[in-house]
Design a protein that fits this description.
The complex is a heterodimer of chains A (488) and B (155). Chain A is an alpha+beta fold. Among the domains of chain A are: 95 residues, no CATH class; 177 residues, Cytochrome-c3 Hydrogenase, chain B (Orthogonal Bundle). Chain A has 15 helices and 16 strands. Chain A has a five-stranded antiparallel beta sheet with strand order 3-2-1-15-16, covered by helices on one side. Chain A has a four-stranded mixed beta sheet with strand order 8-7-6-11, covered by helices on one side. In chain A, helix 4 runs antiparallel to helix 12 and helix 11 runs antiparallel to helix 12. Chain B is 32% helix and 21% strand. Chain B has one domain: HybD-like (Rossmann fold), CATH 3.40.50. With 155 residues, chain B is α/β, with parallel strands linked by helices. Chain B starts with 5 loop residues before the first strand and ends with a helix. In chain B, helix 1 crosses helix 4. In chain B, strands 2-1-3-5-4 form a five-stranded mixed beta sheet, with helices on both faces. The chains are: A alpha+beta (488), B alpha/beta (155). Chains A and B meet through helix 1, helix 4, helix 5 and helix 6 of A and helix 2 and helix 3 of B.
Chain lengths: 488, 155
Amino acid sequence: MKKVSIDPITRLEGHGKIEIFLDDKGDVANAYLQIPELRGFEKFCEGRPVEELPRITPRICGVCPEAHHMAATKACDAVFHVEPPSAGRKVRELLYNAFFVGDHCTHFYALAGPDFVMGPQSNPAERNILGVIGKVGLEIGGQVIKCRALQHDIARIIGGRQINPTCGLPGGVSKAIIEEERKTIEESATFFVEFAKFSLKLFDDIVLKNKAYVDLILSDAFKQRTYYMGLVDKNNKVNFYDGEVRVVDPDGKEFVKYKPADYLQHLAEHVEPWSYLKFPFLKKVGWKGLVDGKDSGIYQATPLSRLNASDGMATPLAQEQYDKMYKTLGGKPVHATLAIHWARLVELLYAAERTLELAKDPEITSPNVRTIPTETPTEGVGIVEAPRGTLTHHYITDEKGIVKKVNLIVGTTNNYGSINMAVKKAAKGLIKAGTQVSEGLLNMVEMAFRAYDPCFGCATHSLPGKMPMTVEIRNHQGDIIQTLKRPE
Amino acid sequence: MSKAATLILGLGNTILTDDRVGIEVGKKVFEACGGEGVDFLEASAGGLALLDAVCGYENVIVIDAIKTGAEVGTLHTFKACDYIGSMRLASVHGVDFFTALETGRKLGMKVPDDIRIYAVEVLDPYTFSERMTPEVEQSVPGIVVDILKREFGGG
């Protein structure tokens, strides 16, 4: 058995390490993504007042602080048995959808975009946001920066800070939106809608009209048939902020729909001795190993999963794009990993439309944004959709609201099994007996990995196009016969 | 709100033990320099988010933690024109600080020409705690004096 290791260099803490095992013929037998770091964040939260967790948990990750803030705030609602008033819910949802706009925009242009705009085999030195700007033009590059800046401004207005918002309280939010602020947000949201439409057009021109890219998206190397999960509203339409968790099977049929408080009845976590990250799976299907298919309890929670698990989008322009995507890719559900990028853009448009809807809602400037809790705190679950997957916060407190236990299932954790399988599939497609392993392996493995926009507690750090990796290929006696390193 | 000429940017994560040193030192430098013509910002972010923070200033003083194996409390100095690979300033979800600055320049944004980086050698930036290690805590006063001398001629 030969081993190929893709190991981030030491300055990145070795958060993620990919080991590829070859059989005696030189074909890929197995691949594993190891997470060697124990984060211990849940233990760190014990003993604290639960209402502090919306301010502490965003520090897990500086990229999606709003997601943790919102899940924690909703968990606090549940712990204190309090419902926010309608205006409070809407203010939260407004902040949250604006956040999705900024996050999805950044991912497409800074991360996914380089693979498609520059090409997966392009020079790594150019396969980044600078290369994209060079190709699409300064004006578009400026629009990306503007989109982010406007979203940060909305976060500051509603959340109190540009990054790491602090507005979430049990029962609502800390401050209402005044009319002057509402107008600013409405203006920004109008820009978001136009930019989202433009981004989908760009994807159409650059990716969908390029047969090679479409073939890549639909190729078997990037396909897995799993269950799919996402939050849906009462009409089974995608909702990032609230609803029930819906899971469909690999054929697209509803498998289960549950309220957040019931998540432990449906999910369990499998442990492997070679990684600190656990593998969530569907209890009623069972853990069958790192395999896909209807008999395996592995599920995915990604932008594509959300669309697969829903009956559509709740806003008209996004619904049109949803229909177009499924028509192009042959119907629901879609199993193509790289189609996650397309789904992400459909979601970008929904988030933009929803931000505009809420900004125009007459209730959005109501001063009644909080219900003061009066019940004794006990236990609660808050679930939102983080950009990269369903995010669950579960807190148990004593009668004074001091945290006794925390369980978090973060977006990427849901996908850990699928990411492993995606890496293995990509490797199988590229490493064959008798062929020299090339730098192309590193790029293709990155593409499979990057489609999930993984966040191992902000543990994995890389630049698109030049993910630091070391690949060691060993013969059956364990001797290194080839080493690939990036950077050199 | 108009910006001052100089920004002190303290970077770090305040629940990762020594990773908070950039913010702690930044706050103390700002308090000691008197604040005239100087703004202070603490941030637990990287990449494009920092681009928004630094644009519009004439010069920026960045203060952060670093782990190179040098003696704890050593103050490393860099300029943004030096390439530095950093695990905190690069992310799968965005771009690194230096690419962000270059992006801003290409787009005609007012990216400061003069960005100076002070990186404090730390012991433990990985485990969860709201307190720094004693070794790093003890080094803070001397580091503040050092930066004040270099930047403001005081201390």
